[in-house]
Amino acid sequence: MLFSPYTIRDVTFKNRIVMSPMCMYACDREDGTVHNWHLIHYATRAVGQVGLIMVEATAVTPQGRISSRDLGIWDDNHIDGLRTLTTLVHEQGANIGIQLAHAGRKATVSGEIIAPSPIPFDETMRTPKEMTKEDIEETIDAFQQGARRAKEAGFDVIEIHAAHGYLINEFLSPLTNKRTDEYGGENRYRFLSEIIEAVKEVWNGPLFVRISAHDYHPDGLTVKDYVEYAKQMKAQGVDLIDVSSGAVVPAKIDAYPGYQVPFAETIRREASVPTGAVGLITSSLQAEEILRNGRADLIFIGRELLRNPYWPKTAANELGISLEAPKPYVRGW
Ligand SMILES: Cc1cc2nc3c(=O)[nH]c(=O)nc-3n(C[C@H](O)[C@H](O)[C@H](O)COP(=O)(O)O)c2cc1C
């Protein structure tokens, strides 16, 4: 299963292994352009036979960066570097996606930060400005422009980052969205819904959304709420939900191998939508179990792929599968 192809729309990934989006804070200037370092980092995982490389959270506005070293997609000047990246990864036989992101109240860049409501993340962070209707419209447009640039740069997949307490997640959760207008209360899903619509106007390829399926707070959301959100995403044409959890508010999370898989499984079963599982999945047998039991459709691997860019080869060896050598031919692969 782990090494069987998977097709979404017109794109077929050669296996079910996805490099989970991971910010590397590696831009050497503050303009968000791709650096040679990114080319080496991602292309190495493509040589390592990852099926789909998901590029890290990439900011749709300068103000939406987690840090000043984040990758950006807020300007047409970003397209060339991103196109070099997609070309290199394609040459090595992998698919490549990009995670479009806005950090909201968790942005650490200088200047004003924005959020649905003026509540800081914790006592160390600044109080964000409550977004006006105009801010909301501009941000939705920034996601659309980001999607257009991603298409021009040759990406195969777009993932909207709606997890980990960043801007979209802040709209979804009642802990961070105290608005009384049409984006609050019962309508906390509206902001994400309008972003999905805007992205789909310019993008008809595979569309993923990453969610945090649990707020780990007594007044926050749980996977039950996310099943309802997932049904709406599916109805809007989202192809796969990448299921993570937490970080809307500071919380202590009991993380153990595969701890988020039950969320991916529940959403897959109850919303009838493909899911990706992520979180301390480090062994091929664990990945096979998840896929064979229909708990998720794709396996997102994070830190294990930082430690071992050739993890798919390790996994294939464990499963007794021989992989085609990367090109040009690698002796002893
Ligand atoms: C250094 C680092 C950077 C990360 N950056 C992102 C990111 O840009 N977007 C995102 O959705 N998750 C991000 N994550 C979370 C990972 O994608 C993944 O969900 C998490 O590490 C759990 O998977 P793992 O146990 O396989 O590492 C990051 C994690 C790490 C360790």
Automatic annotation (TrEMBL):
Broad class of enzyme this protein falls into: oxidoreductase
Residues holding FMN:
20-23, 57, 99, 210, 302-303
Q: Which cofactor does it need?
A: FMN
Question: A single Gene Ontology molecular function, please?
Answer: NADP binding
Which Gene3D superfamilies did the record assign?
Aldolase class I (3.20.20.70)
Q: What is its EC number?
A: 1.6.99.1
Which annotated residues bind substrate? Answer: 25, 161-164
Annotated catalysed reactions: A + NADPH + H(+) = AH2 + NADP(+)
List UniProt keywords, sorted A-Z: Detoxification, Flavoprotein, FMN, NADP, Oxidoreductase
Keyword Transcription annotated: no
Q: Where is the NADH:flavin oxidoreductase/NADH oxidase N-terminal domain?
A: 2-319
Q: Which domain of life is it from?
A: Bacteria
Pfam families this protein is in?
A: Oxidored_FMN
Similarity field? Belongs to the NADH:flavin oxidoreductase/NADH oxidase family. NamA subfamily.
Protein name listed in UniProt: NADPH dehydrogenase
What organism is listed for this UniProt entry? Anoxybacillus gonensis
